[in-house]
Design goal:
heterodimer, A: Recoverin, domain 1, two-stranded antiparallel ribbon, B: alpha/beta, Undecaprenyl pyrophosphate synthetase, about 45% helix, globular, EF-hand-dom_pair (chain A), EF_hand_dom (chain A), EF_Hand_1_Ca_BS (chain A), oxidoreductase activity (chain A), EF-hand domain-containing protein (chain A)
Chain lengths: ~500, ~230
């Protein structure tokens, strides 16, 4: 893992495997730096409002992590066509995000200054990460890296004019934004204090909630403290973040330790493998999932023992009469559960357009859709949203609460939802054959056909597909292939 | 596990006290069975018909069983006993209890010492109906259904035929217990009430069984093991 480069910026291309950005890809410090950069982004009022409204990172952080990672990878791909396509996709994605924050100020994910700030935080966090772990970058490397990040912005925006051309001016720009523009936004607080405390288990560890909760209780506050201590001092003061004794040492120790992994043989730590493994759902037919099964069995047993040994609260005496919660039937989830796990993608307790847009976004990302299919999918979801709003929003506040949903579940399977299923079928059926074959199915669900599906000759017909989608969305049936797609963290 | 209620009545105690006293017997019998080399032990804790008992007694039993399972889980694990639960299908079983059953089964799944099957919310006829359903679902042609194949569709198909059934408190009925597996079982009916039943009583039952002449419908073999 080298951070010094030989040759000048002219000799090596800015993108591709030789770039500074790629050098950090598999560096564990990058994980800490990414969290820090995300907090700084969220502290920007425009970005914070967009995140708070649209982002699924609180309820589905692992899915979000995977998507972000893959997107960054494509943006720094050696092939310009891949980069351009990804930039177009991101632009389309961001163009769909605009609104106003809680104080009524408008935000727009296409705002030039805001997008420049995102790139600035990534660059600054990479530089800071190297400083904090005791291996500061040389002036040449830093300049080269800055050029890379400006090129990244240029690929998105068409030009990099929103960021200063010279790196010396960049630091003045950065300090000015931190001092003048950053605020103690809701989104930044959520990342610092709520995300890690409530981080849901990744798909791989989903069967072991006890173990996950125990680990999280330890790691969560630690990550929070490390991130706070690494933020710029002016922002910490402004946002009223605590200065805890020892936090700075802890933070530098963490960066230093993570930096030591550079002595490991190359290829030992591969971010892509780690992220892909975490996103594996247990019933996937991926060979790695099978190799994990043995480990999972052991962990499951550990979790079972912990649960059995945990003292009962209150009702340990069989003579006392505790209130027994109503048990839910197997294979169906309660309306509240479905609302929380599937419909409320942004985790704000309400069903709103951003929730459905997040579903459309996830499906479009999975299927790697181009125009005009992407717009068709969004339009279908938008029509479904209008149908839902008309049918369910009884108090007329423009959004649907869990209660409103629970009282009106049967009307969920209207014509607009069927239309969503049909558009999704067309988008999944890439070759337009009228059936979904094994490859197309795998693209959407990342797993092979299950034998209990209504399949004929290893393909999946339109009516079966639509029926399955509707039974997931309205019949609230669990254990469908849609679960890992829309319900997993 | 018969006689808990009568045991309590004899002492002018509520029926629930009898169930509570049963816990000591359960542990005693498990220990005695393990020590004397029994490889398969099944306890009939709760039948599908027991749901007809008064609601308060059923609720009490659910809480008691949960407490007992949790209390003795480490012991069962340490003794190498594989635990599993037969039945447990009714939605009236509290979710926490079903979770504890699952946890104990998962925890002890790799144990090889003795297999303890706890029949809870169990009915022999229901198991047979389930097996029939499973056969039909697998689209097995009628001609191919044999006793062997049928048994493979019962819950826990690795369970061998039952050799000995002990029914305490003098009751002499089958009461829908593992109907398929008890086809050739020997039956012993000790008079002791379940809370009074102890390891020596269990060993006495084993002794009775060993003196029985098991013929499985045939004629006695020339040499009948070490006890002939």
């Amino acid at each position: 893992m080298t951070t010094g480069t030989t040759g000048t910026a002219d000799a090596t291309p800015l993108f591709g495997p030789e770039s500074q950005f790629r050098a950090f890809f598999d560096d564990p410090r990058w994980a800490l730096a990414m969290i820090r950069a995300t907090v700084l982004e969220a502290a920007h009022p425009q970005i914070g409002a967009a995140l708070a409204d649209n982002s699924t990172f609180v309820t589905h952080p692992w899915r979000r992590l995977r998507n972000t990672f893959l997107s960054m990878r494509r943006m720094f791909d050696a092939d310009p066509a891949v980069r351009e396509r990804e930039a177009c996709r991101l632009n389309r994605l961001h163009a769909r995000m605009s609104g106003s924050d809680s104080r009524g100020r408008a935000y727009d994910a296409m705002d030039r200054a805001a997008r420049a700030w995102v790139v600035a935080t990534l660059f600054e966090s990479a530089v800071t990460m190297c400083r904090l772990s005791g291996q500061p970058l040389g002036q040449d490397t830093m300049e080269r890296m800055y050029a890379e990040y400006r090129a990244f912005l240029a690929a998105l925006e068409g030009d990099a004019g929103a960021l200063p051309e010279d790196i010396n001016d960049f630091w003045r720009y950065f300090d000015r934004v931190v001092g003048d523009e950053l605020e103690n936004t809701e989104a930044a607080r959520v990342i610092l204090y709520r995300l890690f405390d409530h981080l849901p288990a990744p798909a791989l560890l989903d069967g072991m909630p006890t173990l996950w909760a125990a680990g999280r209780a330890l790691i969560g506050p630690l990550l929070g403290a490390i991130t706070v201590a690494s933020l710029p001092e002016p922002y910490r003061r402004k946002a009223g973040l605590p200065e805890m004794p020892g936090a700075a040492t802890l933070m530098q120790g963490a960066y230093l330790t993570a930096g030591f992994t550079r002595f490991l043989p190359e290829g030992w730590i591969n971010a892509e493998t780690i992220i892909e493994t975490l996103s594996l759902s247990p019933d996937s037919d991926d060979p790695r999932a099978r190799t994990m099964t043995a480990l999972r069995a052991r962990m499951k047993r550990g979790a079972a023992l912990i649960r059995l040994l945990t003292p009962l609260s209150g009702d340990s005496d069989p003579d006392s009469v505790p209130a027994t919660p109503p048990s839910t039937g197997e294979g169906r989830r309660s309306a509240e559960e479905f609302f929380r796990q599937v419909l409320d993608q942004t985790g704000d307790g309400h069903l709103d357009w951003p929730d459905l847009a997040a579903m459309a976004r996830e499906l479009a990302t999975r299927l790697d859709l181009d125009e005009p299919e992407e717009t068709r999918l969004y339009d279908a979801f938008a029509a479904w949203w209008r149908e839902l709003q008309a049918a369910l929003d009884t108090d007329g506040d423009g959004r649907v609460s869990a209660d409103e949903y629970a009282t009106a579940v049967p009307s969920l399977a209207g014509p607009a939802l069927i239309r969503v299923a049909e558009v999704l079928f067309d988008a999944t059926d890439k070759d337009g054959s009228g059936t979904i074959d094994a490859d197309e199915y795998r693209t959407l669900f990342r797993t092979a056909f299950h034998r209990d599906l209504a399949t004929t000759n290893d393909t999946f017909g339109r009516s079966a597909f639509v029926g399955d989608f509707l039974s997931f969305m309205s019949g609230r049936r669990t254990n469908t292939p849609y679960d890992p797609l829309l319900a997993d963290a | 596990m018969d006689g808990n209620g009568r045991w309590a009545q004899l002492r002018s105690l509520p029926r629930t006290a009898g169930h509570r006293a049963a816990e000591a017997t359960v542990i005693d019998v498990i220990e005695a069975a393990r020590a004397s080399g029994v490889e398969w032990l099944s306890l009939y804790a709760f039948s599908t018909e027991n749901w007809n008992r008064p609601g308060s007694e059923v609720a009490y039993l659910m809480r008691l069983v949960r407490r007992v399972v949790r209390k003795h889980a480490p012991l069962l694990l340490a003794r190498g006993i594989r635990c599993r639960f037969l039945g447990v299908a009714d939605p009236r079983i509290p979710r926490e209890l079903a979770q504890d059953f699952d946890d104990l089964a998962t925890l002890t799944a790799d144990n090889r010492g003795m297999t303890l099957t706890l029949a809870f919310d169990h009915g022999g006829r229901r198991d047979i109906v389930e097996a029939a359903r499973s056969l039909i679902r697998s689209k097995t042609p009628a001609d191919e259904v044999t006793e062997r194949l049928f048994a493979d569709h019962l819950p826990f198909p690795d369970t061998p035929d039952v050799d000995l059934v002990i029914r305490t408190s003098g009751e002499q009925r089958i009461s829908n217990f593992m109907l398929w597996q008890v086809a050739y079982a020997e039956w012993v009916f000790p008079e002791a009430l379940w809370p009074d039943f102890r390891a020596p009583d269990f060993l006495a039952c084993l002794h009775t069984y060993r003196r029985r002449d098991r013929r499985f419908g045939g004629v006695p073999p020339q040499t009948n093991g070490a006890l002939s």
